[in-house]
Amino acid sequence: EMCSFVGAPRSALQNSRTALTPSVSACAFARVRTDYARAAAAGSAARTAAPRRNRTQRKGVIVCDADYYSRLGVGRNADEAALKKAYRKLARKYHPDVNDTDDAKERFQEITEAYEVLSDPNMRARYDQFGEAGVKGAAAGGAGASGFGDFGDFGPFSDVFESFFGGAAGGARAGRGGPRRTGPSPGEHLRVDVDLDFEKAVFGGEHKIRFSHLETCSSCKGSGAKSGSSRVTCNTCNGQGVVMQVARTPLGAFQSQTTCPTCRGEGDVVKEVCTSCGGKGRKQVSKTLKVTIPPGVDNGSKLRVRGEGDAGPRGGPAGDLYVALRAKPHASFTREGMNIFSRISVSYLDAILGADVQVPTLDGEHTLKVSAGTQPGTQMKIDGKGVPNLNNKYVRGDHYVTVDVAIPKKLSADEKKVLRELQDKSSSSKSTREGLFKGFRG
Known about the structure:
Elements: E1 2-6, H1 10-15, H2 26-42, H3 44-49, E2 61-65, H4 68-72, H5 80-94, H6 104-118, H7 121-130, H8 158-165, E3 190-196, H9 198-203, E4 205-216, E5 231-233, E6 242-249, E7 252-259, E8 268-270, E9 282-293, E10 302-305, E11 321-327, E12 334-336, E13 339-347, H10 348-353, E14 355-361, E15 364-370, E16 379-382, E17 399-406, H11 413-441
Parallel strand pairs: 3-11, 13-17
Antiparallel strand pairs: 1-2, 4-9, 5-8, 6-7, 10-11, 12-13, 14-15, 16-17
């Protein structure tokens, strides 16, 4: 690293530690003394290698700039081939996969950072002119030390800045005479929530929905200008779509850009507005649309209808309409994925003796055989009577039926008589069986 003490004579640096600001630690002071001694021993060549324009001119402050040339071990006049050769040599030496020392990773990152800057002609020119600050924002883009300038030329990061600031690499390049993004922008997507009957969610069908969206004005074709009139360049931003703002802080002047409040980033304004849409280029319209619900949809399923969202500004393409589906609950059925669950109640006699009972399903009544001796809570399965698969309507889930046994609270005299006789016979049979087993055991 290249360090220098600005605003003090050489004798003060060599003979007095008190000349340093209180924020500079003893370690930093030792670094400065060491680097200064090396520079003094190297003579004028070392002073030439670290021109004063790379130093921030603040009196009485230690300023450290990363010396990217020293990191790669090349001179300031090194060409692209020399830079690449030096980088490859150091990369092979310090790559973490081949070097397991503690500082290998940090050294590898440092030389990679240096090569990324010096291998780019524009970044290298900034670094040579402004030092490390020129490639880390303070003087990037030729803004000098007073502000941040534009965010242009960030290579693969341009799309990231574009998503935040709009335009090419934040749109700041447009403010300096570069091209501004042109062409209409697409409209917004819309969402409509729809409640479906349980059966329609299972088997699908057509469903009408009513919603409101923005449509391109048919009179002005989205321009917002009156027929025969035209759009003119915005006087506030001079057609750039952005305005620059400078904020002065104790740390210096910071320059930023915002969307032009007059033209809202479009760069031009309407001279005579369209009377049909009020100069907006779009109108709010209510619309009824018939959509096809596929079989097997469930709560949270979404359908996309292309081109039914809001129309884009200035005749831009419309966004999409997303239909979010919710299935209403059923009085008898419960759904879990592709399976249906329900309950039936049978008499205690049917549960004891067995019977064929009619069970309601999604497809109508189905005959279910209840076996003799069926216990309360027994679950029985009806194959293929569940919900169709969303991707293949010919594949269906199953219907599970839970059997509840109804126990009568009141019995007639004849019923009680028959049940007591049955109880006596059951007890007699039980005693006979116990005596028989007792004989075997005795």
